Amino acid sequence: MALGMVVPDPNAGLVYNSKWATVRSWLPHDRESVLSIAKRVLDQFWTYRLEELVWAAQEESVEFSELTRRNLLSTLSSLPAPWGKLGLNKVVGEVIQLDEFLRNATLSESELQDVQGVFERCGVLGVSDRRFRVLIERMVHPSVRGEEEQKKYVDALGAELRKSGWELQATDQDAGRALYSLMRANGGVGGRPKRIIFASQAKPDLRFSDAINGDIEIVRFADKVLVYDRPIPPTGFLWRHLQEWWAAAHGLEPEARTTSVSLFRRLRSSLPKSSPPQRLLFEEFFSTFQKSFDELPALLPEVWLYYDPLTVSQRGRDALLRQRMDFLMLFSQSVRVVIEVDGVGHYCDPQGRASASKYAEMVAADRDLRLSGYEVYRFGGKELEGESGRNIVRGFFRLLFRRHGIEAEESK
Which residues form the AbiJ-NTD3 domain (predicted)? Predict the structure, then answer.
């Protein structure tokens, strides 16, 4: 009672003999209030299972997929002395309650050599994201590694982590040795995308239907935009995810070429006819990477970034430029790439004269996006003309994918 855990009616089927089981059973019914109670329980009656339950429930989304975890464990298994100077119980046991998984078993020397097998046996594939991050930080802690060994581990794990938008950063020191924390690479964008409004053929009239939850209603021109509202996978929003959604929405075969073609045409139809450079970039992307674009981040055109409730007369017509992105790619939930193709309207007034104020508006919008964690790349429309423009697009995407550790097979 003191913790706020009111004993339920025995006939309701919610009576348990442990606080962990009670919290687990109640969570789906009233998440926020139950989490508040669970934290108080944890402060007074700590258990590993209850802590895991609370940590997992606090996560908005899964940042480290099973595939990402397996790849990181594979990297660890390729490095020398995985249990460091202290041994398995002191290294991993400081983070994961080994008795929970090993049942007091003593692992033989040969079993300890199977590093990935030991980690999997310890339940690393299923622990909360928070505990997984703590484990990676523990594996490079100076109390576990000598200086040279620590550098090898940071370099090897860092290369794999960057593929998912994370990195190990030196954030403190202890006795002259670096302490590393797992951080989003390049800052990244916080939060989880709830919906993507894109491929707009007209400016949608957006209104908050629930301002507290951030729910948005498209009041006008709903048939002129696409709205993707499925969860965005932690490892990126790929073309195949988009195509599966498109197929489900239109009763099509998810893997059929006709489905892919119809989706491509719908996206292309949203590109303004007044901007051939945008069309060139979009078409060249798919032409160059047609052998592999299924597994590449989707190139989303005409994406609406946020809702501005002011009228055109209040905000000024040019401010609308800040609401929309020419293209967006999500390499992960936090790593989001914006691509802009600038025509004369970005730096000239309606009479075609160079305008310092128009240029200032454009760079201010870029600054806001970058400070929010987005990567922003701009092309001058004049660049994207003819074969030289196509070469520029191909070279750009090659370097972009290389930067994010993605292998992309080209058809040319």
Answer: 66-213
